[in-house]
Amino acid sequence: MAKDMTLLWGSGSPPCWRVMVVLEEKNLQGYNQKLLAFEKMEHKSQQVMDMNPRGQLPAFKHGNSVLNESYAACIYLESQFKSQGNKLIPDCPAEQALMYQRMFEGNTLAQKMADVIYYDWKVPEGERHDSAVKRNREALSAEVKLWEGYLQKVSGPFLAGKNFSLADVSVYPTIAYVFRYGLSEERYPKLAAYYNSLKERPSIKVSWPPTWLEKPQGEDTLKDL
Amino acid sequence: MAKDMTLLWGSGSPPCWRVMVVLEEKNLQGYNQKLLAFEKMEHKSQQVMDMNPRGQLPAFKHGNSVLNESYAACIYLESQFKSQGNKLIPDCPAEQALMYQRMFEGNTLAQKMADVIYYDWKVPEGERHDSAVKRNREALSAEVKLWEGYLQKVSGPFLAGKNFSLADVSVYPTIAYVFRYGLSEERYPKLAAYYNSLKERPSIKVSWPPTWLEKPQGEDTLKDL
């Protein structure tokens, strides 16, 4: 199978999760993999640094090619294994355009989520401000509403329409994250329906973060968003 | 030509510049375009908001398809006009992997540059800290050194090797920006050589930011980096 591939990953990391979903969708099971613990700083270990000088996960290799950026790995794998497993880039130009647009907008959602969820981790104690926390939450709230609107308008169950695509691969982990952190399913019904409907998709189910399975109860950081 | 395309853009914005370079490389001249002024807040005008609800530039349309995310527009245009103009995604799997990896790493470079250059613009006065400024500059310095190293090692004049590709399209505007903001050509000789060698490439020359042509002298924010 995929014995010439190696993935070093961390549980719950959206970038790692994206790569795992694509590997499943493309029937590339059987790759070498190692689950590392962020809390033990294993992402700064020599094994990771040798593959990824930024000391981040995922660290991913196909043969001698290193693809640590999750978007890079996803597009590359779809391109190299086009006719294997599920097709993840639609042929229809309009659907393809929407797919790329949503895929890359997903970076903004992920960034705004991180600004809220990881605020205390990213900002040293003496530099924290309630005004910044408030602004970040407002920005995330506007962003999440934008995505709720996208799902109201799209003609199909997926982000780019009728087909599961790289847009879903890229954005689903972030959507799962905001619900893990307490986003209200009542206030965001379309996002909640999307989130719940894809939970059982085999590629997503099999790659569900093991730390979330061990501790099913999430946080409530976003419950009032 | 490209009469079914519309680009709303701002001078000097790396995302806008990327899309303009791709349009040139793919021989898609003749598109409808409008230069808007960030300083007059024209990126928040109704015309932009109708295409891009985040009120950001570029706002780009092909037919009815909206592609405001520059990476989305670049990959989409290359995919839709594969055999027209210059090929921007190499076929060789190893070169393609390197291209995607560098392309998406370019986001990190752009982000770390923005954290330094736009600090006062992004962070309200009461929330600014010298410690954050210092940390951001150190992070950018480490990042720029990483790219200097990449160019030392690559076998060819471009970021992914022998061919000009989407990696160059994506990252060149940021490299031009750091030099515009005073990065030392002496301390980063490989980056400087890359920057200077591509200045005369037709797609880059024709899309060079008009505000930079009007005022050739840049800033010195990064001169000690």
From TrEMBL, chains A, B:
Residues 3-85 form the GST N-terminal domain. SUPFAM superfamilies: GST C-terminal domain-like, Thioredoxin-like. This is Glutathione S-transferase A. PROSITE patterns: GST_CTER (PS50405), GST_NTER (PS50404). PANTHER family: MALEYLACETOACETATE ISOMERASE. Pfam families: GST_C_3, GST_N_2. It comes from the Eukaryota. GO terms for molecular function: glutathione transferase activity; maleylacetoacetate isomerase activity. GO terms for cellular component: mitochondrion. One of its GO terms (biological process) is L-phenylalanine catabolic process. CDD domains: GST_C_family, GST_N_family. Residues 92-217 form the GST C-terminal domain. InterPro entries: Glutathione-S-Trfase_C-like (IPR010987), Glutathione-S-Trfase_C_sf (IPR036282), Glutathione_S-Trfase (IPR040079), Glutathione_S-Trfase_N (IPR004045), GST_C (IPR004046), Thioredoxin-like_sf (IPR036249).
